[in-house]
Amino acid sequence: MKKIGMGIIGPGFVATHHIDAVRRLGNVEVLAVAGSTQESADAKARELRIDRAYETYQDLIDDPEIQVVHNTTPNYLHYAISMAAIAAGKHVISDKPLAMNSAEGRLLLDAASEAGVAHVVTFNYRGNPLIQHARSMVAGGELGPLCFVHGHYLQDWMTSPSVYSWRSDPKKGGSSSALTDIGSHWCDLAEHVVGSRIKAVLADLTTVVPVRYSAGKSAEAFTKGDHKISAEVHVESEDLASVLIRFENGAKGSFSVGQVLPGNKNNIQLEISGRESSLRWQQERQNELWIGYHDQPNRVMAKDPAFVSDGARRYVHLPGGHQEAWSDAFFNVIRDAYEWISAGAGPEAKPDALATFADGYRAHCLIDAMIASHAEGGRWTEVESHSARAATASLQTK
Fold first, then answer.
1. pTM for this one?
2. Angle between helices 326-342 and 15-25 (to 10 degrees)
């Protein structure tokens, strides 16, 4: 059987994980990579053992053997590249955020839907089997009526002022930094597991490190800063935020995000409480699901294909006691994406747990509301009404 041809644009930190996941599938061939220059593309092609290296993203998109384009570029390039791929009839797998703002996100969603191509956003924590098990517990009513949802996503890679990333530049990262980069993950995870949308937010945003020092290039995530300081950069986007939230199903909650918190490497936690029980999942202990009760002993459920729900079982690759990792959850998302592509990319064929451009657009709407809430002095802001106004206004200026 002929393999599906894919190409990847933007060979940075996460690109290697896209390629690793695709190669594990067996029915997909990594044909090409495109970088910011021919030199960078050639270097990455050699490193990753890819035959073709293109200087521009359009050259890669124009390759007739490439059916699927993976967009792993910085935020400000997402819209143009994904739109070009859609116009060429290619399926698109994009890292989050989908675009720079909700207006661009809406245009991409509409274009992909009209073109009939697969459109995927890599909210990769959905691929964890215990997340899918937790989702089935909530949907099955095992927690009872939900009342409180809370958690955080905390990191420390931007703690040092000598670390400067394009994420802190509003022209390249957008109007938000930490909320867009990692808060979008937490919100997507919460809505996915809870099965209800966040309808209103009250946000407090902070810039803990207002001055950073650039060495002339952007630092990659999770790397140490380059201490060869050459330029002072004043930063206005948030690196710490706390948000109160209200769900459409009546549950309330809160979450915090931060990337300047020493000791927190990739600390995601989601806890959901109902009237009967609670559950808690932590990414750094992702093979365990804590389940709490008020009238019996609490317990910790270990990842095991023999005990997870039917819907979660397909995401478990190893027997109980064999630990699975971040890359395995990422692989699950990529596998879902290619199963959808192989099935023709129709709406009815999409795996239930797979995030699409609709979910990417949704994340933009949530962040729009949080930014507006903070700008208005910490006021409750309705997500749907605000996002609709913002998107309409933005589209009218295009």
1. 0.93
2. 60
